[in-house]
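Hey, resending since the last one bounced:
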Amino acid sequence: MPPELNPDHGTPPHLLIVAPNEPDYQAVVWPLLQAPVPGYRLTWSTSVREAMSQGRRAEFQMILLADCFAADPNHNYLHLARRHQLKIPVIVFGQSIKSSHEERFIEDGAIDVLELTNINLNVLRRAFRYIARLQQQQHQIRTLRLYDDLTGAPSRLSFTEQLGHAFEYADRSATKLGLMMLNIDGFKRVHNALGPEIGDETISKVASRLQAGLESGQELARVGDNQFALLLPGDQDLQAQLNKLIDRICYLQQRPYRVQGHNLALGISIGCAIYPESSKDMASLVRHAGSALHLAKKERGCTFRFYEERNFEDAVNQITLEPELLNALRQEQFVLHYQPRIDINTQRIVGVEALIRWQHPEKGLLFPDTFIPMAEKSGLIVPMGYWVFNKALEDMKLLDAQGCELNRIGINLSFRQFQDDTLVPTIARLLSRSGIHAGRVEFELTETAVALNEQHVSQCIADLSTLGVTFSLDDFGTGYSSFAHLQKLPINTLKIDKAFVQGVTDNPDDAEIVRAIINLAHNLRKDVVAEGAETAEQIAFLERNECDQVQGYYYSKPVALPLLFKQLKEQRQKLAGSGSATDADKDSVSSA
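The structure tokens again:
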């Protein structure tokens, strides 16, 4: 028990009495004045205003407040003390206090209510002991709140207070302040797989290792289960200091952790923001560091990002767009564009890939990377996928009616669509209703979608295959299990990832990879499509190496249905005029 709060030890407690200067209230003081040493130090105040002033200037261990000053709506000390955040314990006392008033005083913040006839030295001594224990408990609670009991690092609450003080100083002194947010990648997997005991020991070791690598005065705070934060005041070279610190942290994190017989390799993602360069207030400093961390977490290993306004604007746009997705689907704000697939020998359009766009009423035409991740996360990708399929079939019928028949139309299937139990019957129903032959439909799969639940997805593909549709494997060469998929799944076409295609004329490795994929596809009796071809040199390389089809900006970007119809019509007219494909066909297609 703190001795300054205990009248039995050392320094006499300081007591403020707030009461009218009347005999009844004065009678309470005499036992205190006549108490044996050490006794009490007493201060008397006869008005609420004076008591508020004294409470701000001096340190009192307790206040005895007359009930008339606790009940007066215009001069209520309890209300004023709460408004001004004065934390001194208050006991209300009076001649005769109704139970209803007693309850109200307690609700307003008093710790006890006593009648004058019950107040004596022993009662006050017990009150002081109670207050001492209460304050000691509050101190312990605050300590627990300010420090993480597992790592010993400052807690989120403590860090928030430190950030407030540091920001005020930086603002006042016109200096810089860096905020670093760190995420321990893979920790949740360890916690879930090996149990909370190993998880707790792991995060404790992480905190100890990182803290040991910091310089004097730098303190790591634990602000989440697997997140830490660090403040770094500085001068003009603050970003260089942060980069140096990031290098040291990444170096420390390279070494695995040994925990109860397990070797655990944990990555780390770091996001940084600097005041006032990229943030104008404390809230934006925290928000921007979090935004940078979010971007860093998208990559593997030890990665870091500094806040960039462009990236933050993208994140804000996604947040504002997410609630609009369902409404966009209901109001049919989505449209399809089609990118032609060209037979490299005849230079004719033999197919297209259907690509969704969002015709936003305010933001204009939005591309898939803006909204598809949100649709995947929310599950809206399932009805959106059915809309794309149905719309593509309708557009094929329109082209057929105009005499511009396409051999094949490619439609992307996401992993979330495979999770829908009605996928196969819904596709069958839409095909039957459209009258389009199933063999003209090609579903484009990604290796990621297949690998997430290979057994289930394989069964869905097998069921869809019985309808007569075909399949292509998109972005071939970028995954880890391409050859296994080729063996097990009814894949008809391989699509070479554009990253390899665009490097065939500059990078010998990319050229060799593309040759190998073309040869592999032909040996397995599959068609091969090169994506992303943009130059005549790339087309010439693909033609020399007998690639079947090409899809890229060299021939056409994705276009709306009317422009696709125009391209097909011009191609048909040229073929009708010449009787066969000529070199002029290439010019016709590429100019469109």
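The longest strand covers residues 348-360.

Sorry for the duplicate.
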